[in-house]
Design brief:
Blueprint: E1 4-7, E2 12-15, E3 22-27, H1 38-56, E4 60-67, E5 73-75, E6 79-82, H2 83-91, H3 95-112, E7 120-123, H4 128-140, E8 144-146, E9 150-153, H5 169-174, E10 190-195, E11 211-213, H6 215-227, E12 231-237, H7 241-256, E13 261-267, E14 270-272, E15 275-276, H8 287-292, H9 297-304, E16 313-314, H10 317-338, H11 346-361, H12 366-378, H13 384-397, H14 414-428, H15 432-444, E17 447-452, E18 455-460
Parallel strand pairs: 3-4, 3-12, 4-7, 12-13, 14-16
Antiparallel strand pairs: 1-2, 5-6, 8-9, 9-10, 10-11, 14-15, 17-18
Helix pairs in contact: 2-3, 4-6, 6-7, 9-10, 10-13, 10-14, 11-12, 14-15
Length: 461
């Protein structure tokens, strides 16, 4: 069946055909200076769904994801301090210790969300030589030049810049903050390699003295090393489009004249009250917040499936709690089918399979795919064949539908969650009598309910 994916480069859905038998993918991974929040994980859940959809279509994968443990400055436009170095100073720790700590937690959370791990997970600091070699080649080809601050990419040498975004170079320049390097040839030139001031913690010997990498060069160097000059798909969040990915393309054109990936895919933001969830805005929640509220981690994944990855998704605890109830229903629905003895015609099963396959192949349209899953769950005849079909769908969903929720991670029964939701509604309707009555019932059943700023929390007494 045809697989259609939206390509940010051509701004349209395209029929996907890999360059060779193994699909090669590169994904921009986390900057490990702090905990990843659930907004970040929306981007990795999208990446997971893409991997699983490709596998469902029978493709073999070679997928690399980087861990940025050096070089990501506070602003994407080469300004401010290195994020890892800043965190190291703040926490009074070695930067490698900081990076390791947050990488371990990131990967633990990856597993909690049952995200299928890329075949290659690579750290920037392990690829300093590859980056130096890449920068040298760009300079040799006439696309890079040295200033007293570092080595810059000369965008005026390109046939076209930008190619991925619609950003107007002039507008960006007019709105730019203080110019960081007066020696830059063009205001849009960006740093490939930065000369380290004496007190800078992470720095390496290079042909230009003690330096550290610019953020974009790591992805160019690592994708080239593991996937070659040209590969199939590059993924990231929409915030990567105007600077990071634009500059990765520029670097690759400067080095070998090619745009590195054929298809560029970007996940839209998870928002809170309409605005982006981000560390700098201080409106973040982590998977531990879910754990504290006894919400199954995979309920967050199910919640993400309520919107196609190219649309914004607004986060509320209410919606997450209803996803938690839905996840339990899904698992119960699977169980009922797995114990069923009724016969379901093959044509019915084939039709469900085709609809599901069509939905995922339509640029990973998960809301439509989930509606097919629910149709199977609600199918009046209970049959083992439908349970098998659901298990097949779960290869794409990764919701572990055949496992009951983990102890300590989601132990609140359905009935209690429903009562809590009714109480929420009563509170919204300012029906205090009803809300108090439900609180008492919950107490009798052994649960206490706490009203916190970010929503209600249910605890076993
Ligand atoms: P960072 O660790 O800040 O480099 O971000 C890691 C990934 O998370 C990138 O792909 C970002 O685009 C993505 N990201 C950051 N904030 C959000 C958000 N609120 N919603 C979805 N993706 C996000
Ligand atoms: Zn990247």
């Amino acid at each position: 069946m045809e697989l259609k994916l939206y390509n940010t480069l051509s701004k349209q859905k395209e029929s996907f055909t890999p360059l060779n038998d193994t699909v090669r993918i590169y994904s921009c991974g986390p900057t490990v200076y702090s905990f990843a929040h659930i907004g970040n994980f929306r981007a990795y859940i999208f990446m997971d769904t893409l991997r699983r959809t490709l596998k469902y279509n029978g493709y073999k994968l070679k997928h690399a994801m980087n861990i940025t443990d050096v070089g990501h400055l506070e602003s994407d436009a080469d300004e401010g301090e290195d994020k890892i170095a800043k965190a190291a100073k703040k926490e009074n720790k070695d930067p490698y210790e900081i990076a390791k700590y947050y990488t371990d937690i990131f990967l633990r959370d990856f597993d909690r969300l049952n995200i299928d791990r890329p075949e290659i997970i690579c750290k920037a600091t392990d690829h300093i030589n590859e980056m130096i070699e890449y920068v040298e080649q760009i300079v040799k080809n006439g696309y890079g030049y040295e200033t007293s601050r570092g080595i810059y990419f000369d965008i005026s040498k390109l046939d076209k810049y930008p190619v991925l975004s619609d950003r107007k170079v002039e507008e960006q320049i007019a709105g730019a903050r203080v110019e960081v390097d007066k020696e830059k040839r063009n205001p849009e030139d960006f740093a490939l390699w930065i000369k380290a001031p004496e007190n800078h913690i992470m720095k390496w010997e290079s042909p230009w003295g003690l330096c550290y990498p610019g953020w974009h060069i790591e992805c160019s160097a690592m994708s080239r090393k593991y996937l070659g000059e040209e590969f199939d798909i590059h993924t990231g969040g929409i915030d990567h489009i105007p600077t990071h990915h634009e500059n990765e393309i520029a670097q690759s054109k400067g080095r070998c004249g090619k745009i590195p990936a054929k298809t560029w895919m970007h996940c839209n933001f998870l928002t809170v009250d309409g605005g982006k969830m981000s560390k700098s805005l201080g409106n973040i929640y982590t998977l531990d917040t879910l754990k504290e509220k006894n919400i199954d981690f995979l309920a967050y994944k199910l919640f993400c499936f309520s919107s196609q990855y190219r649309n914004k998704l607004n986060f509320t605890f209410e919606a997450l709690e209803s996803a938690n109830v839905s996840l339990i229903r899904l698992k119960e629905g699977y169980k009922k089918h797995s114990e069923g003895v009724e016969k379901v015609e093959k044509s019915v099963i084939d039709e469900f399979e085709e609809k599901f396959h069509e939905a995922i192949n339509d640029d990973l349209n998960m809301p439509v795919a989930m509606s097919v899953v629910w149709d199977v769950i609600r199918y009046p005849k209970k049959s083992k064949d439908l349970a098998d079909l659901l298990l097949k769908f779960d290869e794409v969903l990764g919701l572990k539908i055949n496992e009951m929720p983990q102890k300590n991670e989601c132990v609140i029964p359905d009935e209690i969650l429903e009562l809590s939701q009714k109480r929420e509604q009563a509170r919204k309707d300012k029906n205090w009598e009803e809300s108090d009555k439900i609180r008492d019932i919950l107490k009798e059943k052994g649960y206490i309910i706490k009203d916190l700023k970010e929503g209600t929390k249910i605890e076993k007494i």
